[in-house]
Design brief:
Elements (H helix, E strand, L loop, with lengths): L2 H16 L1 H9 L12 H8 L8 H15 L8 H12 L2 H11 L6 H15 L5 H12 L6 H15 L10
Length: about 170
C-alpha cells in the first residue's frame, strides 16, 4: 500500500471531523470530471505533486477518491470489490453483480461514474472499504500506460470471494 495514499486518506478523515464545508465541496465534485471542480482544489492539489499534465492518472484518482470518501467515509480493511461482494451476499440481488461486471468493463472515461453509483449502494447499507487501496487501484486503472486487466482480475476474485455465503461450519468441526 502506498504511504502517500494512506496519508491522503488520513487527511480526508481529519478534514471530515473539522470541516463540513470541505466534505460538501468534495461530494459536489463528483458531479464533474475529476479535477474539474475548483472548490475541490484546496483539498486535493497539495497531494497531487508536480504532475506533468493535468490529466495525470494519479491526480485524477486523488480527485475521484476524495469525492467518493466525502460521499461515504466509512473505512474498513477490505477492498472496494470485496465490499461490493459483501453487499451482494447481504442483499442477494442479481443487479449488484450486474453492476459490478459493468464496473469491471468500464474504461478510464467512465469508471468514476460507475464507482460513484457503487459507493452510493455501499453507503446505503453501511459497508465500508479501504479508500487508500482504491486510490492506488484507481491510479493504475486511469493510467493510459498500463493494462488494467490484472487489476480487474483481482477485483473479480475479491468480489466473488466476499460474495460467498459464510459457512456455518468451521474447519475444526
Amino acid at each position: 500500500m502506498s504511504d502517500h495514499a494512506e496519508k491522503f486518506i488520513e487527511y480526508l478523515a481529519a478534514l471530515k471531523d473539522w470541516d463540513r464545508g470541505a466534505m460538501a465541496a468534495l461530494r459536489h465534485s463528483l458531479a464533474f470530471e475529476p479535477g474539474a471542480y475548483p472548490r475541490a482544489f484546496p483539498y486535493v492539489e497539495r497531494f497531487a505533486g508536480a504532475a506533468a499534465h493535468e490529466r495525470d492518472a494519479h491526480r485524477l484518482a486523488l480527485y475521484a477518491v476524495a469525492g467518493l470518501f466525502a460521499r461515504h467515509p466509512l473505512r474498513r480493511p477490505q477492498s472496494f470489490a470485496a465490499a461490493l461482494g459483501e453487499l451482494l451476499r447481504l442483499r442477494q440481488s442479481p443487479s449488484i453483480e450486474s453492476r459490478f461486471v459493468a464496473l469491471l468493463g468500464a474504461d478510464a472515461e467512465n469508471i468514476v461514474e460507475y464507482l460513484r453509483q457503487a459507493v452510493s449502494l455501499l453507503a446505503a447499507d453501511g459497508i465500508g472499504f479501504d479508500h487508500a487501496r482504491l486510490l492506488v487501484d484507481l491510479s493504475q486503472w486511469l493510467n493510459p500506460g498500463t493494462d488494467p486487466s490484472r487489476l480487474r482480475q483481482r477485483w473479480a476474485r475479491d468480489f466473488y470471494r466476499a460474495a460467498q455465503p459464510v459457512s456455518e461450519y468451521t474447519d475444526s468441526e
